[in-house]
Amino acid sequence: MGPTGVGKSTFINLVSNSDLRVSDSLVSCTDRIEISKPFELDGKEVTLVDTPGFDDTSKSESDILNVVCEFMASEYSQGRLLHGILYLYRISDNRVSGVAARNLRFYRELCGPAALANSIIVTNMWGLVDATMGSAREEELKTKPAFFRPALEHGARVLRHDGTAASAQSILRPLVNSKPCVLQIQRELVDQGRAVYETVAGETLLEDLARAQQKHAQEIEQLEGDLQDALSQKDEEGQRELEEERARIQAEQAKLEAEKQKLMQLQIVAATRKAAQVQAQATEHAHAHAAARGAQIENTVTVSPPPKAPADEEGNGAPYEAEGSVGCFGLSRLIRGSVHAKA
C-alpha cells in the first residue's frame, strides 16, 4: 500500500521479477489490484498484491476503496489470508502532504489494531535525500501521532529499503515467516456484514466528504457577498469572475454529493455472497434442529389419558398425571417450541 508514485510496483517487480506497470510521473499506473508472479523466499512461495493509492489520478477515493474492499472480502471469504501489509513511504518528501496523511490513515483503518503487528512501513528513496536529514525526518515520522506512531504502538515496524533485491527480501522475511492475519476491513465486510460506508474506513471517507462540502458551502456564502458588492459597484468584470468561481465550486459540490451517494450504495459482491451462505447455513441448521426435535417428541413422548384417581371421602375423583407421562400442557409447550424453531 501507499500513495501514487511511491514505488510499490517497482518494489514488487524487483523482488518477484514481475512486470507490473510502473509510472515515471505523478499519473497513476495502478488503478486496479495487480498480482505479482509467485516467487520463492526461504523455501516458501510468495505472492505480492499491488493496490492503487487513495490519491489515484483516474479513480475517485470511493472507487479505490471499493476495489480494495472487493479484493479483501473475496480473498477472506474463500479462506485465503494475508501474511501482512507493506506500506511504502518516500523519505525524500520534505513534508507529509494531506494526500500522504490520508493514505496513512486508510492503511491503519483497513488493517485495524490487531493486524498492524503484521505490517511494515517501508521508507524508500533514500538516495534522494541527505542521510542525516533523512534519519531526522524518519525519527519525526515515528514519534508524531499524526504519522507513523499510531501504527508502531500496535506492533508495526519501520524498515529502510535501499533499492536492492536483497533489501526487499530482508523486508519481506518477517511477514513471510509470520502467521496469517485477518484485517479489520475483512471482518467488517464478511463476518459482520457491514456495507462499505459502515466500515471504519468508509465512515472516515464520508467524514472527509462532509468536511469538503462544508468548506465549499462557506466559500459560496463568501462569494455571494462579494457578488453583491460587485453588482453595487457595477464591476462587470469582477462579477463575471465571481460567477465563474461560484459555478466551479457548485460543480465541485455536485461531484462530492455524487461521490457520497456512490459510497452509500457500494455493495461488495464477495461479502454479500458470504452473508447469503451464512444465512442459508443458519436456516438449514434451524430446520434440522426442528426436525430432530419433532422426531424426539414423536419417539419419546407418550400422552396417556390420566388414570382415574381414587375417590376422596366424598366419592369425587380428581384427575392427576401418572408418573412418567406428559400432560397436554407440557406437550403443547414442546410443539410450540418446535414450530418456532422451524419458522
Automatic annotation (TrEMBL):
GO terms for molecular function: GTP binding. Transmembrane segments: none annotated. The keyword Coiled coil applies. The keyword Coiled coil applies. Residues 288-320 are annotated as: Disordered. InterPro entries: GTP-bd, P-loop_NTPase. Residues 1-61 form the G domain. Keywords: Coiled coil. This is G domain-containing protein.
